[in-house]
Amino acid sequence: MTSSDAAKDKFYEDLHALLATVPKEDKLIVLGNFNARVGTDHAAWQGVLGPHGLGSSNDNGLFLLQTCAEHRLLLTNTFFRVLTREKATWMHPRSWRWHLLDYVLVHRRDRQDVLVTKVICDADGWTDHRLVISQMRLQIQSRRRPQGPVIFLLFCGAEGEVCQLCTDSVREVVRAKAIQPQTLLHVTDNPVAAKRQFQMFVCLCDAQQYHT
What we know:
The protein is α+β, with helices and mostly antiparallel strands. The protein is built from four helices and eleven strands.
């Protein structure tokens, strides 16, 4: 069944809006029957269409290619050299010609994650489209927990040298531990207390590194 131009426009508007909400660093896998023939002109669609497309293109295929180019996606089905019967997903009922209409899309930077995308010829999916599988090797990196505030203590003792000693020491600790400090001014006129508080600061730094 052929959709109206208005329905196609609405579909791609919705798809654009949805893709725009996906964080760039996230893994993204898009699967579906796009009723799109993308053809074989991979030279014109570098990074989107691979060298192993199938047949000619149509208007739906152009829509899909443009969408992939805008969102830096690629058509994984077209990047693997497999037999036509393992690539084509639908046969036209009158011409009996096979076409590639169902795709698996990923971000271009994740191309190496995809081991193969192909058709399972004998799978029964209660549909006139063949089942497409994509084998991937995903390495999911957990997001870093946001760091809590790191306290940067400046100790101002009764004697100027105590303040200078502690301030220099704080700088050394921050530099050695690669910690980005936030500043909190703490004033004391007791050199012993100043040094004790500095030792507490070092402990805070150690704890912060341990939990990140």
